[in-house]
Amino acid sequence: DIAEEWIRSNITKAETDSDRTTPIPVWVSIGDLDGPLGNYIANEIGLPALSQLGVDIVVDGLDEHTDKAATALRQAAEFVAKWPNSRVVLTSRSQEKISSHLVVPAPSLSKAHAARMMARVAGHEIGSLGTHLESAVERPFFALLVARHATAAEGATGIPELIDLVVE
Q1: For residue range 64-105, what is the model confidence (pLDDT) as tens digits?
Q2: Can you give the three-state secondary structure of 52-104, one letter per residue?
């Protein structure tokens, strides 16, 4: 859901970008990657667009093709090193194939606990975050992300902006 919201936000930015400087949003299922990620993207959008604009990529479904997950992660790192205007988010949903001893439950936080955690991590109280982020920080991962990017996150109005900060 988070990756979908991030890519939709990037699609909106790309559609409204009259200067044509916004990276091209691309969603790809890991099952569709029969070769290197770079080759797939170059074939989809072309090298001129890739070199001029870059891409914002979501590679979805690492949990569905665990045999390809490590390769996808390595290729994503190599891709952004080669194409610095690009960003890659990899998704995995299911915990079914993960050994139970590796899973650490992270239940939702109360608003007070989330505020206290963020203040400790950031080193100061975090101000108003807006409706979307206020509810998101009840999940421990997002509370940590907001706290880690506290100064910049104060300007974020939703999950896509927060994810942009983290990806950058």
Answers
A1: 888 888 899 899 999 999 999 999 998 887 666 566 766 667
A2: HCCEEEEEECCCCCHHHHHHHHHHHHHHHHHCCCCEEEECCCCCCCCCHHHCC
Rounded Cα–Cα distance for residues 158 and 86 (Å): 21
- Nearest Cα to 89, choosing from 71, 98, 76, 70? 76
Whats the size of the chain, residue-wise? 168
| Residue 53: closest CA among 89, 26, 90, 91 | 26
SS3 128: coil
DSSP class of 107: P
The answer to whether the pTM exceeds 0.90 is no
Residue 154 has pLDDT above 60, yes or no: no
User: Cα(69)–Cα(143) distance, rounded to whole angstroms?
Assistant: 27
Dist CA 88 CA 23 (whole Å): 11
Q: Taking the CA atoms of 133, 139, 142 and 143 in sequence, report the sign of the dihedral they define.
A: positive
Q: How far is CA 140 from CA 41, 63, 166, in A?
A: 33, 22, 15
